[in-house]
Amino acid sequence: MESTVKDIIIEKAKSSKIEQVDFNNLPFGSVFTDHMMVCDYKDGAWQTPKIIPYQPLTLEPSARVFHYGQAVFEGMKAYKDDDGKVWLFRPDENFHRINKSSARMAMPEFPEDYFFDGLNTLLKMENDWIKPGLGNSLYIRPFAIATQAGIIASPSQEFKFLIICSPAQAYYGGEVRVKIAEKFSRAADGGFGFAKAAGNYAGQFYPTNLAKEEGFQQIVWTDAKSHEFIEEAGTMNIFVRMGDKLLTCPTGDRILDGVTRKSVIALAEEQGIEVDIRPIRVSELLEGHKNGELKEMFGSGTAAVINPILGFGYKGERYELPVMTDSYATRIKQQLINIQYNIAEDKFGWRYEVK
Amino acid sequence: MESTVKDIIIEKAKSSKIEQVDFNNLPFGSVFTDHMMVCDYKDGAWQTPKIIPYQPLTLEPSARVFHYGQAVFEGMKAYKDDDGKVWLFRPDENFHRINKSSARMAMPEFPEDYFFDGLNTLLKMENDWIKPGLGNSLYIRPFAIATQAGIIASPSQEFKFLIICSPAQAYYGGEVRVKIAEKFSRAADGGFGFAKAAGNYAGQFYPTNLAKEEGFQQIVWTDAKSHEFIEEAGTMNIFVRMGDKLLTCPTGDRILDGVTRKSVIALAEEQGIEVDIRPIRVSELLEGHKNGELKEMFGSGTAAVINPILGFGYKGERYELPVMTDSYATRIKQQLINIQYNIAEDKFGWRYEVK
Ligand SMILES: Cc1ncc(COP(=O)(O)O)c(C=O)c1O
Ligand SMILES: Cc1ncc(COP(=O)(O)O)c(C=O)c1O
């Protein structure tokens, strides 16, 4: 994963937009840096990656991505420490995951050296966009789209792989109360819920809008078969603390294998918290709420790291969670952040230095 | 549904590409006419539709459609009769369906007058692209995509609605043998399988590639819960003839409510064929194949109208269907085509004249 940068074609932006950006007031995901990486797939091969000025894409109206949703993406962050060094958190996980998503969407895998060379080169060029200070980061969005012209429902033979970057402040997920899905579903057994594919997201918008009307911020999806087991939220895996035990459901066909999730599990286990990875019944939450065993629920994901859940709704009833002083959520979030910003020791070898 | 055309902004192409097109050798969905309709949604409203020269789209790399698959589409055809009149087949069905799809994908509904005015105006401009003669048609692809910039997984506030057109010859679906899905699935209960949304298509490509390696052309999806009931194929609803009875499964959450399907049902019933709309077990196909009751299977959809299925594969076994002389498939297909091309009487009021 050393950067070699031999092949990448670089076209620098004539001037930087950075002076126009208010880094103390950044809405998430809407300001982009000066450059982006683009790599085209055609004639059965990925062409030489390019780093070019950030700019619109020009595509045929019949490009497959518009009609058939053949597209995958990733989300990761770069952090700057007080010495000005730039770090990624487990980027190999994102690299392998986008290729796993691509395989399921009949898209070609992206070469490892292109990914890491492109990323390193781009991030070094955008170094000024990565601000030091806890909470500040550069959100990185690798994605690939089917670009071949032609409205026939079959796999594209042409693709674009891109990396775009957006400076971010600490993501305050806000007060999150979730609705537990009773009727709508996110993914089918034997489907592609495990993939970070475009087609998994827009379908959540309408049910989430309905939940918002009822005063919830997000939906916790349940299995489509019985709606008896909780699965994950829009862009977060879900943890439940029962007594001193931490529960999270197994990933599989339907559930994204989150990088934050697996890091939370490792950190919790390391400090002697018992972690049970098994299906979690909605009825357990209700019982746990009643008998006081249900202490915490939180979501895990790259954007917010850990997002405490304050309460949930189910079958017309609302359930508030207790307010914890020394919560697992806060403790593990701090540990994660300390590793990400090169403040704490990196026992697991998760940090990756950009250079 | 009269065309008023008061508002549409028209910019004509400087010259036509039509001379360069070989109308006797048209690969499906890859040649497009000289113009397209575009209508933008912003500030909470659809703006004035425009008809402009067919051209690429320019979108921000962070446009929602690339990342979250917020996109819907339709497929319909225009037919020219021997008097040079141009006909659509039940376009109101496509209009209502795209709005039903949009609602499920948290997209704004498109106004009826914009749809029909746009379509009529565009089709009159492209009149030379619609060739008379059975089998020739103009395939019409209305679609809408989320264009707002910003990589946050929430509904776009900006959209583009487009209509593009591609001349087509009789679509010969080829010899179709289908694999009955045993492991992969297309849609979840409580999901959006009923919508003609981009996210329903790319997920089928990989399982279909695997089926192709085994010598099948398409997959017949089964319910994700049990894989015991057949549902639909990639872009076709499925009919089964048992004895003299025609079976097709009910539509619902998971299955597209096909225009061809409902027309086949109406035509069959009109001529006294008993049509049973009920869940169809895979085991019934196996039994019917054994005892000779299974006479036909066919798919129905706009592209191929009716596509006979020659055989199917299930759990490693292959089953061939009998070769019928006077099949329901051939008979009903002919009746449908005769209505579409203004050859037969239009008892049901399905034809819509473009003028
Ligand atoms: C559906 C879904 N679940 C969970 C997550 C969390 O994954 P990660 O921790 O890798 O960001 C994401 C992505 O952020 C997601 O899109
Ligand atoms: C999933 C699916 N099923 C069935 C059909 C058939 O529908 P229609 O007869 O309206 O073309 C289509 C579209 O063509 C489709 O995309």
Q: What does the model show?
A:
The structure is a homodimer of 355-residue chains. Chain A has 355 residues and is of the alpha+beta class. Chain A folds into 2 domains: 2-168, D-amino Acid Aminotransferase, Chain A, domain 1; 177-340, D-amino Acid Aminotransferase, subunit A, domain 2 (D-amino Acid Aminotransferase, Chain A, domain 2), CATH 3.20.10.10. Helix content of chain A is 23%, strand content 28%. Chain A contains 7 helices and 21 strands. In chain A, the strands form 3 sheets. In chain A, strands 1, 2, 3, 4, 6, 7, 8, 9, 10 and 21 form a 10-stranded mixed beta sheet that branches. In chain A, strands 11, 12, 14, 15, 16, 18, 19 and 20 form an 8-stranded mixed beta sheet that branches. In chain A, a hairpin with a 3-residue loop joins strand 18 and strand 19 (305-314). The longest helix of chain A is centred in the N-terminal third of the chain and has 14 residues, at 91-104. The radius of gyration of chain A is 21 Å and the shape is globular. The first copy, chain A, starts with 8 loop residues before the first strand and ends with a strand. Strand 5 (57-59) of chain A pairs antiparallel with strand 5 (57-59) of chain B. Bound molecules: pyridoxal-5'-phosphate (PLP) (2 copies). One pyridoxal-5'-phosphate binds at residues 75, 196, 232, 235-237, 256, 258-261, 300-302 of chain B. Chains A, B: Acts on leucine, isoleucine and valine. Chains A, B: Its cofactor is pyridoxal 5'-phosphate. Chains A, B: It comes from Zeaxanthinibacter enoshimensis. Chains A, B: GO terms for molecular function: L-isoleucine-2-oxoglutarate transaminase activity; L-leucine-2-oxoglutarate transaminase activity; L-valine-2-oxoglutarate transaminase activity.
